[in-house]
Amino acid sequence: MQRPAQAGDVLRCTLVMRHGEETLSGDDTGERDLDLDRETVIPDIVDGILGLSAGEQRTFELTLPEDYRREELRGATVSVDVTVHAVRERQLPAEDDALAAVDGHGTTLAELRDHYRAALADNALASDRERHEAQVLTAFRDGIRVDIPEVMVDREIERQLADLEFRIAAIGIPFDRYLELSGQTVERLRGERREAATQRVKLDLGLDTLVSAEGIEVDEAQVEREARGLAEGRKLDAGRRRRLADLARRDLLRRAAAERLLEIASEEFVPT
User: What is the dihedral of CA 228, 230, 236, 241, to 10 degrees?
Assistant: First the structure.
């Protein structure tokens, strides 16, 4: 197809996204199919490609969204190089019973529609529940009046940095190299995380208080399963295994406290 790319088209293209010297997606030689769909592709990538025809190339910059899969790159500026090899218009199949047979969710078009109608309703309900839970926990945290010890905030920041280093190492990049490529320093990372760490500690202190006030307990068998999962693939002595079990118990108690908090928030008011 010779016309310029439009939203909804499927492109055959070469696309490379880089952050500094690190390649985040694609390579210079590999072709790929790309749906120009803002629901499945970063919207700024779609916008940067619209209007290109087969044989054309474009380089542009964009800011990664706040829900980008790698937390440390959220809000970062990246460059995108794209070369379009072919533009194809998506051809939708006919809406009939044959579509249901191909999709596999029912044998008739009516059954297929019922399936996806129910799935959409379930997804909407789950989204509403997650939004409600976040609002309840935020309101609970903001209602806490307590001075947060700096040592606890520092400990939470170090926990977050250790988690970041682990995830960076999992993709084969030494942490020092990551800092160099991203133009970051450990001190800057600590500073960027201080406010979020403070709020996290504040919430955890509130949940710990709720555990005591409500007499919340957890099943030790569940603690053991959780600790075993955390220890999988790691060689730990008895002392570290006990420490891991303590951490697992604490996290399970806090989760139970959060669930109890949601129960309290959802209880209907009964006049006396």
Answer: -60
Strand positions, DSSP E, 66-149: 77-88
φ, ψ for residue 199, nearest 5 deg: -65, -35
CA proximity to 184, closest of 20, 11, 13: 20
**pTM exceeds 0.85 for this model:** no
Cβ atoms of 44 and 37 closer than 8 Å:
no
Where is 259: in which H helix or E strand?
helix 238-266
Work out the pLDDT band at 233, boundaries 50, 70, 90.
low
Q: Which residues pair with 23 in a beta bridge?
A: 18
Confidence of residue 203 (pLDDT cuts 50, 70, 90): very high
Whether 90 contacts 10, CB under 8 Å: yes
Q: How confident is the model at residue 94 (pLDDT cuts 50, 70, 90)?
A: confident
Same domain, 139 and 251: yes
Q: Are residues 174 and 249 in the same domain?
A: yes
Q: What is the dihedral of CA 117, 123, 129, 134, to 10 degrees?
A: -150
Q: Is residue 4 part of a domain?
A: no
CATH number at residue 228: 1.10.3120
| Parent domain of 125 | 93-129
Residue 270: inside a domain: no
